[in-house]
Amino acid sequence: MAENVGKKGTGKDVSKKKVKSDKLTASKKAAAGSANQARLVITHSTYIPGLIKLLEKLAKCPEIQTITPAVIAPVKSNSPRLRLKVSVPIRGGHKLIARKSKLAQEVFVITHWSKADLERAIAQILS
User: What pTM does this model have?
Assistant: First the structure.
């Protein structure tokens, strides 16, 4: 009776551990492959349309470490196209405001760039 319990428990546990370690290895490989690209934090379920594609392009700049989209809110004025404006400096980077139609979303960028350097990079990506 003790043999059956040991075999059954060992077989299932070993296979689960292998699957988990394979998944971890795959995610570590993916993270290592993009070592020169900034980390784009995807935590919200709602984003301004087109914002993530734009931020993925910005994340390719080697001087940027992390990009985090944050609060999204309705606004009164209308912006027909997607715009990114550098708003205020934060510790370690800058806060951006993304605007499209009647929505505004905060985006936090961790970088050592000055405001002017970040504005140039954004203008180049938007053009």
Answer: 0.70
